[in-house]
Amino acid sequence: MENFNFNVSTDIRFGKDRLDELPSVLNQFGKNVLLVYGGGSIKRSGLYEKIKTLLKENGLKMFELGGVDPNPKIESVREGVMLCKYHKIDVILAVGGGSVIDCSKVISGAVFYEGDPWEMVLSRRYEGPTIPLVTILTLATTGTEMNRGAVISDLNAKQKLGIHGTNFLPKVSFLDPSLTFSVSKYQTLAGSADILSHLMEQYFNLTPGTEVQDSIAEGLMKTVIQCMPVALHEPTHYDARANLMWASTLALNGLVGSGRKGAWSCHAMEHELSAFYDITHGIGLAILTPRWLDYILNEQTLPKIERFARNVWQIQEPDSMKAAKMGIQALYDFFEENGVPMTLPEVGIPDDRDFAAMAQQAIDHSSLLTDAFEVLGVKDVVAIYQACLTKSKFI
Amino acid sequence: MENFNFNVSTDIRFGKDRLDELPSVLNQFGKNVLLVYGGGSIKRSGLYEKIKTLLKENGLKMFELGGVDPNPKIESVREGVMLCKYHKIDVILAVGGGSVIDCSKVISGAVFYEGDPWEMVLSRRYEGPTIPLVTILTLATTGTEMNRGAVISDLNAKQKLGIHGTNFLPKVSFLDPSLTFSVSKYQTLAGSADILSHLMEQYFNLTPGTEVQDSIAEGLMKTVIQCMPVALHEPTHYDARANLMWASTLALNGLVGSGRKGAWSCHAMEHELSAFYDITHGIGLAILTPRWLDYILNEQTLPKIERFARNVWQIQEPDSMKAAKMGIQALYDFFEENGVPMTLPEVGIPDDRDFAAMAQQAIDHSSLLTDAFEVLGVKDVVAIYQACLTKSKFI
């Protein structure tokens, strides 16, 4: 195990019927609140009106930045920065999924950044001050509600980049599982695939002696595998939604990733799919991951992939290589049986015309070439993309 | 899953060779440091001299409270409070295991408490201010380095009581696994048994829908079961010590306990063994737990005990009741094979003369009678104590 810091001070308010706590939470930071949200589902659900009324009744002034897209765009950040400066915003209230919260994080720092926000994103780290951020999560996916990362896209430049900020960590996050009852099947699938991918990206790693982290990762993977089908079948199943939500948060708050290092492989490859074609992030990950595992399966990676097969998928097959392949197949089948479109053409990437350019960017924007679980070059990434064009069978 | 708050802001500095960070950590709180430690092992190991030199070189003034006992006594708290007031202490530096840290927590609050510190402990909660606390952990056991609880004994009153304080949470905790290389076999056993017990106390619970918490608990239990024998056999095995240490911290920082409620059964019963006979806490827990599980095994408790047998001990036996019993036996055998004295006479409790009084106190000081995994009365507790007088066989 490597040395690490773990310092995750977000005040989590987990559970239903806790909105009454919001005014006092916001009040500790000031009176001027910037509400950031997405496509308007919070208006349809009535959450927007509830928040507006609550804030008004408690003497808080609410300003708004709506319309933040999935794969949030740098244009939204620029708009948010202007609003923060003009209205002297004291606290940002992000209500939504990962996109809304990520956009809010970058706004919170960019307000104090001298150059254009995209320059800040290009630098990949921000150590300066931020406007305090409070979140109300409406989608179990990215874990951004309890970490220091954010992902922002510039579609003009065909770039989707992660940035970390010491002070991007939300001060308070409200996690109400019942707010995810209305999440569509497709978004539940995509969100769950994203959680699983976060866990696998950290789990498939070469640092030895990370038993705590690995066993937590396996436990959270099993939780998602158990609860996702329940939530798909019965969208208002509170405990299924609650476990998916809490798993999503814990999957990426440092618990699983601390004490080891190494590149994330599928995210590096998927970010280019989203940057070029604006596809749903989690679905892209579900498509890529089994093909990636199959492509990198070799003597060095076998022990961990076999362990994954046995501990997560309860594969009993005695032969190690065969067991590993059965684990990869089980992952693929899990996604397919639950309705994930498992080829690129199904999500609007018709052929391989952009694979070389995307692979090059995947390499340029990551350390796939140097410190991945299994290092990958452009040729390898193209081969993995290629395997995603048609249905796969691994055994 | 029940609603919960999770807000654990302790800044964890995990790993070896990080003592150089100590002066700047302390400096943010002030110049006057009260060093709290135990029986002098930190003097023998050289850690005491290193800290003294570091603090002096960095202009910090060090005062001392040494000799804090295992099962820390209220007398040490009173002494610490006097020292804090007299020397205008700005920050407490606790260097040791759970006893030293727990004692320091209670001191940190009792300084601001108007009455005698034991009155504060008797009230079981402290919501007032505290002196900031920094810890250097030298024993993987209680998890106190990242939570808000403390346990203090008054041997005159034969009482050992837990107290929670909102501000008892350490500000910074240094977790250096190599500081546990010198921990004796017996203390490694006791510490590991304590970690396992914390996990089991939270895991054996009736709240439904806590898949995240249960799967994390199972993962941490498996980690301890895997790493404890390695650390016993090779005390300087870094990764074994690192995983035991990180597991001990995560076992009791809210990850496993959040979202459910209910009494801790074995701790309630063990606290009286320690209060009456001053035995080692973890060993008392190891002795009690299998007998408790066997005593409460019934139709209602079967599903969880069976799950424990299958997921933690890989029991394949198809019959549920038999599998559950095999799990209890596996737990007992694990302790016994690794050298835990598994009967009360072996640890200096010769017979049942105090069982009735201890059982009565266990009931008085807990909610065993109302909200345990399986509710227990005085008669039940006596029966469980009784089963601990001789070796056991569960199948």
UniProtKB/TrEMBL annotation, chains A, B:
CDD domains: BDH. Keywords: Oxidoreductase. Residues 10-177 form the Alcohol dehydrogenase iron-type/glycerol dehydrogenase GldA domain. Transmembrane segments: none annotated. GO terms for cellular component: cytosol. It holds the Pfam family Fe-ADH. The keyword Oxidoreductase applies. PROSITE patterns: ADH_IRON_2. One of its GO terms (molecular function) is methylglyoxal reductase (NADPH) (acetol producing) activity. Residues 189-387 form the Fe-containing alcohol dehydrogenase-like C-terminal domain. This is NADH-dependent butanol dehydrogenase A. It comes from Enterococcus cecorum DSM 20682 = ATCC 43198. The lineage of its organism: Bacteria, Bacillati, Bacillota, Bacilli, Lactobacillales.
